[in-house]
Write a structure and sequence with these properties.
The protein has a domain of 36 residues. By secondary structure, the chain is mostly helical.
């Protein structure tokens, strides 16, 4: 286990976060990242369309 993960595990243990909570938070992070990525792609596509005109 690397030092970073060890610190993270200790922090989670201190907060008494369950594994489910942590997984849920990671899922939310992933969903948010995916949405912002998708939004950025759509903005990029719109810019390209405008540039083509």
């Amino acid at each position: 286990m690397s030092g970073l993960n060890w610190e993270k595990a200790n922090r989670l243990r201190k907060r008494r976060l369950s594994v489910v909570d942590e997984k849920e938070r990671l899922d939310l992070d992933a969903a948010a990242r995916w949405l912002s990525q998708k939004a950025r792609q759509e903005v990029g596509a719109a810019k390209r369309k405008r540039a083509r005109r």
